[in-house]
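Query structure, 383 tokens:
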């Protein structure tokens, strides 16, 4: 095949999974943020340097390309893993050793844990469900961060006593009911008497959450949303409005996964995320750069609008918890902040900028009082 043939296929600029085929035989399966851009990249002049001789050989042998669109890149990642498992394409396994693939595994505990396991350490008999292989471990970890905010679950790290409260505050594990407090000194998840009805209710709700997570990994998002709507209606009929509201947030998150490409093939933020960094500019530069975003739909955390009448914008209260775009932008901002603070720490070592994390620590304020403000402090910082 060649690039001219690919252009005539009319691949969409949408996320999904693509198949290189020779006759009816699938040679290679991949996922994409943009099917059109991704498939086109296989016919660039530097393919052998960027992807290696195996994939160059695959493009020469292939005589057909097919594809399947998905609502989001997250779902494309999951579909890709399921299809690789089903068809075992020659060039997927040739490009990478099976033992270096990653798998999502669910344990048989009373409160099942969700774990990422490398192929070389995997014994499938130890788990009730195994999903994968996922070719890229970093992409899988990023995907699991998104999934975990929709379906909070326990893993080995959150199981540790010192981590429990931290994970709970982040909303990454379900909030264990009050009865668990008497077991707070345990080094494991709380163990309850079978007669503890509250815990039985909690276990049932948690296992139902895991059931929906399994359905999502099986590519059955519509079934998950249908289940959640039934649960929401049931809680509302019982006047348990707080629980109904939590489920409504999950439905919102699932419905809005398709708003933006969540994961790029090269693990960098998509253009939408990259442009969000322009909001950190000041004064007239900020207004000018905001106006340059007129072709984008901008999501803002909180209740304030950006100072521009030319851009499409939507504000979401507690947006970093409710919307994946804002969540990713928040992560990017924190990474940038940490790099900036590390540089300030080298320039002004006595101020403890490396521990600053965007908010002044007590030690930081004391250092300012002792040594005075640096040129990078605004004048009102300690007033």
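Result returned for the query:
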């Amino acid at each position: 095949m060649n690039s001219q043939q690919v252009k005539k296929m009319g691949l969409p600029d949408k996320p999904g999974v693509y198949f290189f085929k020779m006759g009816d035989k699938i040679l290679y399966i991949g996922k994409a943020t943009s099917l059109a851009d991704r498939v086109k990249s296989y016919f660039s002049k530097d393919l052998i340097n960027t992807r290696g001789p195996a994939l160059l050989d695959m493009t020469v042998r292939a005589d057909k390309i097919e594809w399947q669109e998905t609502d989001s890149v997250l779902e494309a990642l999951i579909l890709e893993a399921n299809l690789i498992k089903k068809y075992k394409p020659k060039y997927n396994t040739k490009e990478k050793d099976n033992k270096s693939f990653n798998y999502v595994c669910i344990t048989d505990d009373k409160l099942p844990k969700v774990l990422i396991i490398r192929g070389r350490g995997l014994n499938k008999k130890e788990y009730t469900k195994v999903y994968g292989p996922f070719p890229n471990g970093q992409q899988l970890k990023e995907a699991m961060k998104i999934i975990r905010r929709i379906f909070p679950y326990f893993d080995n790290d959150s199981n540790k006593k010192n981590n429990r409260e931290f994970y709970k505050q982040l909303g990454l594990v379900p909030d264990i009911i009050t009865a668990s407090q008497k077991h707070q000194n345990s080094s494991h998840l709380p163990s309850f008497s079978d007669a503890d009805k509250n815990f039985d209710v909690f276990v049932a709700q948690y296992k139902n959450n895991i059931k929906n997570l399994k359905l999502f990994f099986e590519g059955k998002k519509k079934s998950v949303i249908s289940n959640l709507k039934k649960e929401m209606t049931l809680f509302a009929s019982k006047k348990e409005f707080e629980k109904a509201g939590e489920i409504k947030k999950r439905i919102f998150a699932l419905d809005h996964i398709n708003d933006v490409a969540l994961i790029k093939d090269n693990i960098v933020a998509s253009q939408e995320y990259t442009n969000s960094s322009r909001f950190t500019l000041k004064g007239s530069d900020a207004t000018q750069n905001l106006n340059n975003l007129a072709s984008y739909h901008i999501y803002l955390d909180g209740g304030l609008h950006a100072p521009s009448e030319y851009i499409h914008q939507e504000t979401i209260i507690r947006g970093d918890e409710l919307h994946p775009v804002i969540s990713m932008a928040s992560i990017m901002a924190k990474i940038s902040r940490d790099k900036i603070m590390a540089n300030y720490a080298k320039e002004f070592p006595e101020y403890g900028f490396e521990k600053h994390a965007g908010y002044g620590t007590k030690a930081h304020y004391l250092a300012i009082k002792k040594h005075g403000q640096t040129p990078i402090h605004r004048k009102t910082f300690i007033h």
